[in-house]
TrEMBL record:
EC category: oxidoreductase
Alphabetic keyword roster: Calcium, Coiled coil, Heme, Iron, Metal-binding, Oxidoreductase, Signal
Cited Pfam families: Cytochrom_C552
Name this protein carries in UniProt: nitrite reductase (cytochrome; ammonia-forming)
Organism the protein comes from: Texcoconibacillus texcoconensis
Amino acid sequence: MNPLRKTIYLSLKVFVIILFTTACSSSNTEEVTDLTTDLSPDEIVNTAFAEEFPDQYESYMRNVYDEDYEHVSKLTEEVEPQLPILFHGYGFSIEYNKPRGHAHAVEDVMSIDRINEDSVGSCMTCKSTAVPALLDEMGEDYWSASFLDEVAPRTIELGEGGESEELSEYGHISIGCSDCHDPETMDLRITRPSFTNAMDRYGVDVSEANKNEMRSYACGQCHTNYYFDPETQKVTFPWDEGLRVEDMWEYYETTAQEEHDFEGEWEHSISGTTIVKAQHPEFEMWSYGPHGEAGVSCADCHMPYERGADKKKTTSHHWTSPLENVEQSCLSCHGDKSEDELLDRVDNIQERHLEALEESQDLSVKAHYYVNRMITSGADEEAIEEAQQHVREGQWFWDIVAAENSDGFHNPHGSMDSIRMSTDASNKALKVANRELSKLGEDLDELDRQIEETVQEVYDEEDPGKKHEHAVNEYFPNVLELEN
Ligand code: HEC
Ligand code: HEC
Ligand code: HEC
Ligand code: HEC
């Protein structure tokens, strides 16, 4: 074992011990009630649970947004203005929204512009309670089946007494009870095999998990980074080397390529770089952040206790920002601080994070355009490839924290480290590009001016879905469309 691997391995072991043996004092041990139900073990409809569990169901219904809710695009100047450039050539540059409530997941996946004829069954995996049933019925074919032709219109037979439900008629089977609970006992459970398999490869048997661990694992089934295995299209979590952002990167640079023939999701049309798209790694970032290390679970903050109709203590099933309810979500542990003090701490973390993130994205934009110029001015092939490798790394390390939905809160240090690694990599790309372009006598001031102008045009376009069209032009052509 080489020394680097050994360090990773050792730190992993320590981390596994911390993460998976810390018991948390805050789990609900106060009221031990028998929750055995009369429901079928195959029940997947949320309304079927309403009668027996009215409080939890009522709070679940608070995940339904107002009818006139309008999606918040991440592509705008107020949010992450460089994304239409940074995701150029990939669906995320066309439509990319902030998440909303669990009750809308099916509806949202059905209507997003990123879904098209090439989309596969795997895209449904973190959206619907029907997925375990689909996996039973379709077996391994589920993952690569056509999303629009085979998965979305499928009719699910809903056990005894239940009506059949068409997946495209969303609503009752958006992320819900049976995803996290065994309908007969209401014990927490894992229903997504990708999580179980990845944890197993990583050395953790989730069937042995204790109650506190389950309060995070239930979320870790979906709130994780993943990719589709090219051969099977199966949802795969890249955790073989560990859960830290640098561990996942190590995996993408080795095992993913050697054993799965996976290099990335797409080729960037400005720099020609093959890019790995990061996805919402809440579970990973949390796992080595201050709360994850202390055994504070996702549910501790996102599912605080509240009083039900008959004043009984129940767990809130309204998954939203814990800052909406600091008293229940945070002060139960941080009783020595005031609400304002805590909110200030969070603001502080998030502001610093967003500022550093934007700077690293700016640098990544610049690196993509510099490599574009290397290509069009006929720079040395090997130098181009070297620069592209740095661009690829730079993009991964900002994207994995940009895709994380807490704006740095779940893991302030891990996020900052990642941003620093991104900046280092982008700077290396620029160094190579500077050297090569100078050799060719290119006017770098003019290049910078062109970048500034192009970026401004992207900002000036009002329609988020059209912004990407302004990211390429005569000076910076789409390199994938160039004739060799
Ligand atoms: C994303 C995962 C998830 C989903 C979806 C979910 N629950 Fe829960 N539920 C939990 C967690 C976590 C707890 C806390 C369990 C613990 O501490 O042992 C819980 C606790 C409960 C309990 C135990 C009593 C209590 O309030 O603590 C009941 C009953 C319950 N949920 C019913 C439901 C119903 C009904 C639905 C669907 C409308 C549902 N749950 C959907 C995760 C989920
Ligand atoms: C079956 C997959 C799945 C599970 C399990 C799951 N989530 Fe989610 N979650 C999603 C998806 C998908 C979205 C985005 C939905 C959308 O935008 O339509 C989401 C959105 C959210 C949001 C944003 C809600 C908003 O209104 O902005 C929060 C907070 C959240 N989840 C927390 C949790 C927590 C905590 C757990 C575990 C107790 C959990 N989730 C378990 C898939 C899941
Ligand atoms: C110590 C408390 C805490 C823990 C533990 C925690 N979170 Fe969070 N989470 C937060 C805070 C605070 C935010 C930021 C909310 C905001 O900016 O309004 C957040 C944001 C989020 C969001 C984005 C919400 C939105 O409205 O867009 C998701 C999704 C999420 N967390 C999921 C998880 C998951 C999954 C876990 C466990 C793996 C977890 N969180 C663990 C406190 C926590
Ligand atoms: C179940 C208990 C628990 C809950 C709930 C909880 N925390 Fe914590 N918090 C902790 C523990 C334990 C630590 C780590 C203390 C340490 O390492 O010194 C911590 C650390 C912190 C820190 C310092 C982090 C750092 O970088 O060192 C902040 C800030 C914080 N919590 C804010 C919050 C906020 C905001 C919420 C609600 C959204 C929250 N906590 C909910 C237990 C909790």
